[in-house]
């Protein structure tokens, strides 16, 4: 690939607006439907057994196809893939909002996942090849990281408002204006740098093995939540996931043009990013799930009030990402932001283990949310920037897809794992305290809160582990270094302490 001086797009900041808008839409959709689900279930007559598929259909399609989506972005071009993803996501959202029965709704959710798998890696890789100067890159990824971290909480607020004051269908229809504005802006403003595509033939065996392996893994955790960890179908799905993913690694090491070049995940900094982000999302999704139920069922908050209760966390995430992470990223090494960030988030989670039936929101929940937001925002910002650490521009799409894959799989694992832990703790508490209970309703609430706090304790440990992994694996220097490092022929440049790894592209 020819290497020249880096081209700077004069419209890059306008492009960031539309890339960030698309990312917000994708992240919102991960949580906005959750609050609307009870209303949709009643309206369409969805059974309790099929209710989970409104969430699972999206997660399976999205998580299973992300690597394929990242490779398609490298092959077709990121701008084209970005616009196709937005258009398809808008059409799928319209179908979901107009759903006349559960089959139509589930099909629309799966279709959203398919186009989301195209859109998400295209958005992040566009950002990676558009912003190459260290200070600008820090600012751009600060904004993107705040959206990636806080968008899920924004979804809870917006879902509550739309469900309470309009109806559940608007949690789907709201995506359409987002997509139209982002696609129009992308078509007019975004310019993809020349020489950054990967035109190698598509690795079809890799696509099949990766998709089936990731779907088996995500579905396995979903079945574990409903059937139990030792049930036959659960163990079978986990075994299939291991076999398929091992076969995928073997194939990728042999083929000429792999779906996931192993050089992308073998580099220790990127490996640390993917592992720590996945663990952090496990803890964060668990918090959203339990605190939503706690505030509505135990505290009696309305959907809108519940959503607004998460607002300080969003403010903390934006502050941590744009004011702390972006300002310090060019001055200190990334691990000195990520590890403390995850630790502060774990401390916020530790505060939330103290919730009880009569817990004060200002005295305990608010400080916990603020610490969570500040910590996550500070950690997410350098993580998003380092996702394409040292890769050639032709690998930017698949490297970006790995970030989304770690988050999506982490979210599925977090929901299933922590929900199972909470349910077991709740059942054990209710059984052991049944004899001395004065009121069954009171016992039910006490058992519920005990289950939540038990799961949150696990989330504290998971977040702390994310911090340890970030500190141990991520050893690249601060990105304010004196020179750029071009990737070698196999895609890896040597990492020196004070060098910045920025994609070098042709113009």
UniProtKB/TrEMBL annotation:
Q: Does the keyword Membrane apply?
A: yes
Q: Is Cytoplasm there in the keyword field?
A: no
> Pfam families, from UniProt?
MFS_1 (PF07690)
Can you say where in the cell this protein is located? Cell membrane
UniProt keywords (A-Z) are: Antibiotic resistance, Cell membrane, Membrane, Transmembrane, Transmembrane helix, Transport
Residues of the Major facilitator superfamily (MFS) profile domain: 15-479
Q: Tell me how this protein sits in the membrane.
A: Multi-pass membrane protein
Task: Give the transmembrane ranges.
Answer: 15-37, 52-70, 82-100, 106-129, 141-162, 168-190, 202-222, 228-251, 272-295, 301-324, 336-355, 361-388, 409-435, 455-474
Q: Which InterPro entries does the record cross-reference, listed alphabetically? A: EmrB-like, MFS, MFS_dom, MFS_trans_sf, Sugar_transporter_CS
Identify the PANTHER family for this entry.
Answer: BLR6921 PROTEIN (PTHR42718:SF46), MAJOR FACILITATOR SUPERFAMILY MULTIDRUG TRANSPORTER MFSC (PTHR42718)
Q: What is this protein called?
A: MFS transporter
This chain's source organism reads Streptomyces caniferus
Q: Which lineage? A: Bacteria, Bacillati, Actinomycetota, Actinomycetes, Kitasatosporales
């Amino acid at each position: 690939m020819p290497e020249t001086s880096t081209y700077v797009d004069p419209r890059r900041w306008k492009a960031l607006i539309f890339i960030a808008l698309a990312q917000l839409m994708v992240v919102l959709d991960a949580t906005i439907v959750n609050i609307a689900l009870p209303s949709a279930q009643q309206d369409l007559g969805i059974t309790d057994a099929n209710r989970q598929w409104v969430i699972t259909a999206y997660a399976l399609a999205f998580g299973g196809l992300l690597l394929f989506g990242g490779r398609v972005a490298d092959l077709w071009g990121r701008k084209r893939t970005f616009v196709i993803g937005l258009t398809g996501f808008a059409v799928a959202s319209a179908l979901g909002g107009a759903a006349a029965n559960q089959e139509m709704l589930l099909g629309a959710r799966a279709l959203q996942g398919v186009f989301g798998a195209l859109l998400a890696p295209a958005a992040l890789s566009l950002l990676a090849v558009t912003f190459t100067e260290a200070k600008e890159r820090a600012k751009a990824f600060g904004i993107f990281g705040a959206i990636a971290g806080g968008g899920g909480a924004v979804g809870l607020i917006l879902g509550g408002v739309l469900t309470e004051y309009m109806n559940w269908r608007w949690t789907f229809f709201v995506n359409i204006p987002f997509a139209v504005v982002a696609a129009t802006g992308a078509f007019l403003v975004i310019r993809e740098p020349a020489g950054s595509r990967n035109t190698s033939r598509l690795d079809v065996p890799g696509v099949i093995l990766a998709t089936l392996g990731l779907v088996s893994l995500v579905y396995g955790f979903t079945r574990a939540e409903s059937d139990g960890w030792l049930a036959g179908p659960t163990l079978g799905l986990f075994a299939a996931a291991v076999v398929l993913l091992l076969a995928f690694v073997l194939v990728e090491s042999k083929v000429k043009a792999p779906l996931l070049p192993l050089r992308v995940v073998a580099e220790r900094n990127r490996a640390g990013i993917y592992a720590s982000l996945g663990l952090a999302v496990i803890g964060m999704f668990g918090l959203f799930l339990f605190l939503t139920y706690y505030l509505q069922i135990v505290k009696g908050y309305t959907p809108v009030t519940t959503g607004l209760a998460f607002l300080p966390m969003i403010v903390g995430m934006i502050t941590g990402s744009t004011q702390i992470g972006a300002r310090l990223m060019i001055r200190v090494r990334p691990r000195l932001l990520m590890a403390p960030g995850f630790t502060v988030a774990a401390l916020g989670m530790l505060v939330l283990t103290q919730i009880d039936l009569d817990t004060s929101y200002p005295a305990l929940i608010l400080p916990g949310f603020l610490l969570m937001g500040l910590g996550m925002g500070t950690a997410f910002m350098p993580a998003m920037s380092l996702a394409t650490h040292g890769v050639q521009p032709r690998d930017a799409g698949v490297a970006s897809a790995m970030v989304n894959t770690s988050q999506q799989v982490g979210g599925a694992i977090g929901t299933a794992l922590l929900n199972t832990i909470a349910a077991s703790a709740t059942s054990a508490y209710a059984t052991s305290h049944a004899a001395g209970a004065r009121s069954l309703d009171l016992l039910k609430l006490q058992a519920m809160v005990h289950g939540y706090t038990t799961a949150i304790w696990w989330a504290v440990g998971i977040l702390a582990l994310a911090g340890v992994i970030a500190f141990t694996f991520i050893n690249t220097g601060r990105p304010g270094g004196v020179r750029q490092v071009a990737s070698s022929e196999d895609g890896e440049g040597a990492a020196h302490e004070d060098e910045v790894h920025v994609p070098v592209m042709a113009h």
